[in-house]
């Protein structure tokens, strides 16, 4: 299951006093689950841009604490700088990165805005996707008049804050809290040193386009070909080349790979060749996975391969290694977020995993092994799909098999996560049993913790059952219509899925014995029995197909 990750980029009206900046970033880092990515102070602007990421709850808490600390340390009556501003924390945007929708992100942003207004007495305006009113979507509108005009603005009923009172907070000013799309800074390298030619290509692609004169001699604007893209051409002396420097302000509208290919087309039309590209800052893993799939589709090849392979295809296709070595662990947000510590089971090699299972530790146990058997079963079906897409004479069916391989890969990824989730569920039960139980209050707390952990330990293997069963559609399709030379691989996949489902159900039942909520238990057991029965039937049907094809060969 994809983890929910949000990015927050608050801008504080202090860029010169590093002691103050450090105190603000310290409170951000004090929140568990937060990763501080960047601190960018500017002396001329007297402004610091801080970037951090984490799960939504942690980011929300860190954002509120940082605004609180800034309100204690920054006095707006004494602030001067080149950048427009209206408060100690001028803006506080929230950005969905992975596993979370914009609508969910808006809800978190507004909740933080409400806390800032109610608990800190700072007027809050919600902007962009978090705006309650259309005229407040634009940050420039919310910030019009800046700090110096804020008192008069607050007196206007039309500019009543979304949260907090209309009272002028002289010390802290006001804060704009928003939700916006993720911005990717992406530069495309050219085999020219001409800034003028690079700019011509930038004007071709950027949404704003260029100004031209019509037949009447009037200046009109001709839009570029890429929406949600800002671009300019420049010469980088350090590299000795010209680049198209782009800000992709909404990668769901114009993804990295689409921007790259369009620049390639426009450059080629002007006799210029694209030689590679450069990512400035971090990028969500989905962007590179989508890019990998895009370039494989252009080659009419299956995209149902591992994430590592997809990223490798994307990096090579985009030329991201031309200037600097592209290191996924340093440039992909989700990888940067990876917690250090005890290695996950799925990161172990086969022998280490086997040895860990065979050790005297009770985990990993049958639940994790069941999930992993399911992963291998679906992987066999995915393999048959990928092989079928390459079978001689079946070239026109590559998309059909690529789609099946994609489905298989998705199921594999979910089951892989459940390998570790099952062991984690067991550990939570052990931790709950280890809680103190001297007083009545401690006993109640311990019992409640045991029940919550037990419920989770039932749901994890049940999730394994449901997920593994969904893989039979792939296995059956490959047995019937996949590469006949690999039909026995599909058969082994069916056997592995059956073992997975039945093994996971054993764990559901043993863990259910410790839960006091018998209505919940009975409902889960009934559903589990149904999945088990359908699994047995599906496996038998697939084996009949497999055995029939073996006899006919």
Give structural notes:
The protein has helices at residues 18-29, 56-73, 102-120, 139-142, 150-155, 195-205, 256-269, 285-298, 307-318, 328-331, 333-336, 350-358, 366-389, 398-433, 440-469, 472-481, 487-512, 518-552, and strands at 5-8, 11-12, 35-42, 47-54, 89-98, 124-128, 175-179, 184-190, 210-213, 219-222, 229-236, 241-248, 274-280. It is an alpha+beta fold and 553 residues long. Strands 1, 2, 3, 4, 5, 6 and 7 form a seven-stranded mixed sheet that branches. Strands 11-12-8-13 form a four-stranded antiparallel sheet. A hairpin with a 4-residue loop joins β11 and β12 (241-248). α17 runs antiparallel to α18. The protein is globular.
Task: Provide key terms for this protein.
13 strands, 18 helices, Alpha-Beta Plaits, alpha+beta, 52% helix, 553 residues, Formiminotransferase-cyclodeaminase, Chain B, domain 1
